[in-house]
Amino acid sequence: MVNGAKSNGAEISGIKARVSGVNNGESKPKTTVAETRADGVKIGGNDAVTGGSKNAANKKKINKKKADAGFYARRKIGYYVGKSYVFLILGLIYIPILMIIVYSFSSGRGFSNFSFSFANINELFTGGSTESRRMLRALENTLLVGLASSVLATFLGTLGAVGVNSMRKKPREFMLNISNVPIFNADIIIALSLMMLFTALNIQRSAATVILSHAAVISPYVLLNVLPRLKQMNMSVYEAALDLGSPPLSALVKIIVPEILPGMVSGFVLAFTLSIDDFVVTDYTRSNSFETLSTYIYSQAAGKEGLSGALKPLSALIFLTVLAALLVFNLRKNSKLKRAENK
Amino acid sequence: MKFRMKRSYLAMPYAVYLMLLIFVPLLFILFYAFVSDKTGGFTFDNIIRALSSAEAIGTFFYSILYGALTTLICFAIGYPVAYILSQKRFKMSGIIITLFIIPMWVNFLIRTLALKSIFYSADIPLGAGTAVFGMVYDFLPFMILPIYTSLLKIDKNLIEASEDLGANPRAALLKTILPLSAPGVVSGSLMVFMPSISTYAITDTLSGGKFRLIGSLINMSSFSNAGYSAALAMVMLALILLSMLISYKFNDKEETQGGGLW
Q1: If you average pLDDT over every residue of chain B, what do you get?
Q2: Residue A149 domain-assigned?
Q3: Which of A37, A92, B8, B157 has a Cα-to-Cα distance from B66 of 20 to 30 A?
Q4: What is the per-residue pLDDT for B245?
């Protein structure tokens, strides 16, 4: 649901999981043989020049073959060209976001004619105009839909994962295949089909239909995040609890849930981000009066200047919040790792 | 003997939920594709129109063309980025990859509107070019990440072997690295191609309404002509299934061939 691009569930959950530090089994790069060898056997002198990209044995061979200085000079230049290329692309990606932050401090819409003022920021925090009140309302709705749908999806997806994990091969494959359908399908088809369902059954579109629809689209991502955790855990503990007279439900809550909690959390976070980023499904399943941030922004899209006034500081704030959250998360993860190493 | 609930039954709520809100709705699309909007009776008109009208054929043609163009540009920009980042001498690649992903947490419509603001203040007229630019901008991380992951998985010994056997760097890239990273390229391409033909928010916003792909056509006709939009969605669903089959086949082949080279 990131914008329709969900051609590959594992891939997408991998993408966001990589940053949120969530391990869904395949997002961690493996140390290759070459890498460990390069660390182990070092040939002095050449490391600085080649940057240690090849393993030591290979370096020797290259040395014999092409001992001319030109080769290394070209490699070095190539490295710097490559590096600056990566930073150039990265810079281009961040230009619009930096513009949003800078122009949060300018009055008016869009990015033209910078004139320093706190007007837009004031409007965001005081909710001065009907426009900004509408926007804040949309923000509330976005969070409401995101929370409600990802709680529902986490419930369904986790139970689903526990069930799927204990299935035989055939039904298990069937379940995984049907889980792939909302992941691979295009947003617009899901959205249109849901709208037709609601219309045909005479169900009034509202916040509830948006939440139910989102939950359907994001619960497979939760299932796919929880499943690897279940595979790792030892089910005999659960069986033992049952044998010792624990009712299944309390065994589920007390034995399985604590084991798979990290997977549930990462699934929940992923589901939440997918929900608040969604536009198409929301747009087709909402009532006209119910707006989320996405649909509000889209309603502003027709204006030729682009971003409207208070939307700029709000976007900047969202970006900075995400950045801060990721920084804190990664720093904490690193310090945890260090503490583990010290022990 | 006490009745004990099977654990696999726990998947029932999930399965039922998906059935009701993902599969039953698809049946409704199938149903409405054969219903006339005017009379409410059975008709083939919608399907015929979706498969043979100049508007539909033109839109499908342009969608595939511009979707392919977007994918190609993303590949041309993204592959070198992924390749450079995957090299061991690039020390900060973890941070850089994170930096490539962070913008994806900012709502894509905000990014799209920011681009529109930039185009407006730079006096660039909106059209097909700006729409493709916007799609490339929004979808580039989807191309870079799968390729990066598959490049990291390559056994470096294979590349060294090719160099030892006399391949110059260009040959090593074209004949060893590129084929070995093909699974990443395929999944990256799908992840760019599919959303770029199905999006309507980005194309509508950044082309000033001058430029329509399948997503926009389905969106527009869903208001006026539900049956026609359902028929178009059916055709698009067929396209998605086709591209999925192709990618499945590709991946299977990769696996059975043991690395895909020999």
Answers
A1: 86
A2: yes
A3: A92
A4: 81
Residue B81 predicted with pLDDT over 90 = yes
Give the count of Cβ contacts less than 8 A between chain A and B: 333
Tell me the residue range of the domain where A283 lies: 131-306
B201 reaches A (C-beta below 8 A): yes
Cβ contact (<8 Å) for A194 and B25?
Answer: yes
Residue of A nearest to B144 (CA): A15
CB-based contact, B141 to chain A, within 8 Å: yes
- pLDDT at residue A59, as a whole number: 56
Higher pLDDT, A16 or A299: A299
Contact predicate B172/B158, CB 8 Å: no
User: What is the total count of domains within chain A?
Assistant: 1
Residue A153 lies in a domain: yes
A85 falls within a domain: no
Give me B57's structure tokens.
Answer: 């054929």
CB contact under 8 A, B194 and A7: yes
The answer to whether residue A23 scores a pLDDT higher than 80 is no
pLDDT over threshold 70, residue B246: yes
Distance to chain A for B24, nearest Cα, Å: 8
Distance from CA of B108 to the nearest CA of A (A): 7
Rounded to two decimals, the pTM is 0.81
**Interface touch A184/B240, C-beta < 8 Å:** yes
Minimal C-alpha gap between A306 and chain B (Å): 5
Is position A327 within any domain?
A: no
Measured CA distances, A156 to A10, A216, B13, B86 (Å):
19, 9, 6, 37
B176 or B199: which leads in pLDDT: B199
Whether the ipTM is more than 0.95: the answer is: no
What domains does chain B contain, in order, with CATH numbers?
Answer: 26-256 (1.10.3720.10)
Which percentage of chain B shows pLDDT scores above 70? 93
Q: Which of A139, A158, A196 is the best residue to mutate to test the B interface, defined by the most B CB atoms within 10 Å of its own CB?
A: A196
In this complex, which of A83, A96, A186 lies closest to B115 when CB atoms are compared?
Answer: A96
The CATH number of the domain holding residue A296 is 1.10.3720.10
- The full 3-state SS of chain A, as one line of letters, equals CCCCCCCCHHHHHHHHHHHHCCCCCCCCCCCCHHHHHHHHCCCCCHHHHHCCCCCHHHHHHHHHHCCCHHHHHHHHHHHHHHHHHHHHHHHHHHHHHHHHHHHCCECCCCCCCCCECCHHHHHHHHCCCHHHHHHHHHHHHHHHHHHHHHHHHHHHHHHHHHHHHCCCHHHHHHHHHHHHHHHHCCHHHHHHHHHHHHHHCCCCCCHHHHHHHHHHHHHHHHHHHHHHHHHHCCHHHHHHHHHCCCCHHHHHHHHHHHHHHHHHHHHHHHHHHHHHHCCHHHHHHCCCCCCCHHHHHHHCCCCCCCCCCCHHHHHHHHHHHHHHHHHHHHHHHHHHHHHHHHC
